[in-house]
Amino acid sequence: MRVRKRKGAKEHLENHPHYVILNPEEAKGKWQEVFGNTNPIHVEVGSGKGGFITGMALRHPDINYIGIDIQLSVLSYALDKVLESQAKNVKLLRVDGSSLRNYFEDGEIDLLYLNFSDPWPKTRHEKRRLTYKDFLDTYEKILPEKGEIHFKTDNRGLFEYSLASFSQYGMTLKEVCLDLHASDLEDNVMTEYEEKFSSKGQVIYRVEAFFK
Fold first, then answer.
1. Distance from C-alpha of 161 to C-alpha of 136, rounded to nearest angstrom
2. Which pTM was predicted?
3. Quick check: is 134 catalytic?
4. Among 80, 110, 118, 134, the one annotated catalytic
5. Which segments of the chain have a pLDDT < 50?
């Protein structure tokens, strides 16, 4: 999600170290200590303005959530959402999704969310797609055995590519939704993009993929 540069965003993040982990590499292997409990840890890569991660945290107080985004201003808006919600089980990181192994030990994460990732439609940019096999290699390491990825997008091309990428990697597909909002899936928390696109009548695609 691209937004205008927000004045004071860096300072805003630095002023809330309880929610924004400024040196996440130091938390590697210690995330249960950071949260102060042994609850499962779910990570959203590309958390945008925080609507999804905050909504999930409020619905599931027995799960710890980590929202990741590389864009400074975007993450500062996510922090606003977290502060407003007063959710106790959320942490935010300003890091790149390609370097997750710098911040999480093998098997340390219980579930991964990829919501409305950049489709990078040009063939020469395939390696930048968050469902490309190199990213799947990383996810498989930080997730437990048979760990899962929940993926949502409005982009049919990216969805079809991701289904193929998951399958070619040897993953098991479940809950393949070609029209999420017309399905009977419960507990769906919408992202800002999802609200925007679905209000215009655009179809939202979703799948759960499991490593074997």
1. 13
2. 0.94
3. no
4. 118
5. 1
